[in-house]
Amino acid sequence: MIPRALTAKLLSLAKLFHAITLTGPRQSGKSTLVKETFPDYRYVSLENEDIRELALDDPRAFLSRYDNHVILDEVQRVPELFSYLQGVIDQRNEPGQYILSGSQNFLLMQRVSQSLAGRVAVLHLLPLSYAEITASGQIPDTIDNFLFNGCYPRPVSMGIDPADFFPSYVETYIDRDVRTELGVRKIPEFNTFLTLCATRVGEVLNITSLANDCGISVETARDWLSVLETSFIIFRLHPYHRNYGKRLIKAPKLYFYDTGLAANLLGMDSSSQLLTSQYRGNLYENVIAVEIIKQYQAIGREPKLFYWRDSNQKEIDFIIEKGGHPQYAIEVKSSTTYKPKAFENLEDLAPAMGLDSDHRYVVYGGNETFSTRHGQVIGISDIDRLVPEPAQFGGGAQTVRGNRT
């Protein structure tokens, strides 16, 4: 197993909360992580049909058998358990009783918020980060290889060709999640929709155009985007809400949680194709957004991450907000050569946001990190510079809020 940065946070929260919920995409390493982190816990997979039938038939007896120090994997498959879990957790009233994991964020969190509000801390595990991969000694040869291969643990650790892994991943994902659990029936159309989303990676989302190109209604397109977000395939990055005297674009931008999947959907069968691809810059921008998210999630936080674009097409790729104000303004350039012109928009727009040169960053495709009079220049390996130390956040762990009954 490649060590995961989230391990320390998992262990610390298990000492404070009755239960921990871990969500993330399929094959992101959730089961491996919780089993390695809590080796003394009993592991129960509700993907197993016999176990699932036992839990469905008699939830009380099931939880009497598995009453403490238990990992319940894919627990959203048996929603009836959650109301009974509440009683067991409250009766024992000890930290670290259950680790609940699942790959359907909406289905899982819906049940957690209904039954376990105030009792459970929530963490997310995405595919491997660049830092986790390099720490394991598997340093990507080039940025193009990193973008093309993606970050799912199995192909990274076992050397599986992306051309073999991702088609099977999509087929499995569609069969198990989209059809069985989320009720989508038009699988061929949905598959086309997924590919069309990849062609829009890093772009401002026009749902009407996307729907028209797929031959579906706008309402169906909205529903399917929600399905993809629920399953940790794509996410929408929203524009920054303060306009600083400018008219702003209001639509979100579309990104994938894994660029290897996006590249495969775009029909690329080798990293060398990225060199001349029109999507290379957008995929690099995509991977930087995801790396920022992964760094924050490793300490149990969600970044307040936005983009900024006005009606004159002046844009800042990313803004990270803290305490209601911009903390960093970030421009992304996939070129391995730094050019001072990369700071042009930052120098034009950042002063109005109160950001000096120490808080203006260009993330480029090179390996060096250095300061300039315009701002800071870093490569992907130094993304952690954009993440404050955990102590700077203040407050406690992320928890599901609601009224305890």
Strand order of the largest sheet: 8-9-10-11-13-12
Number of domains: 2
Estimate the strand proportion: 15-25%
Q: Count of DSSP E strands? A: 13
Q: How many whole angstroms does the radius of gyration measure?
A: 22 Å
Shape: globular
- Helix count from the secondary structure assignment: 16
Pfam families: AAA_14, DUF4143
Organism: Bifidobacterium felsineum
Domain DUF4143: 175-335
InterPro entries: AAA_14 (IPR041682), DUF4143 (IPR025420), P-loop_NTPase (IPR027417)
What does this 3D model show about the protein?
This protein is 39% helix and 15% strand. Helix 8 crosses helix 14. The strands form three sheets. Strands 8-9-10-11-13-12 form a six-stranded mixed beta sheet. A five-stranded parallel beta sheet has the order 2-3-4-1-5, sandwiched between helices. The chain folds into two domains: 7-125, P-loop containing nucleotide triphosphate hydrolases (Rossmann fold); 130-391, no CATH class. The protein is of the alpha/beta class and 405 residues long. The model is unreliable at 393-397 and 400-405 (pLDDT under 50). The radius of gyration is 22 Å and the shape is globular. The longest helix has 20 residues, at 162-181.
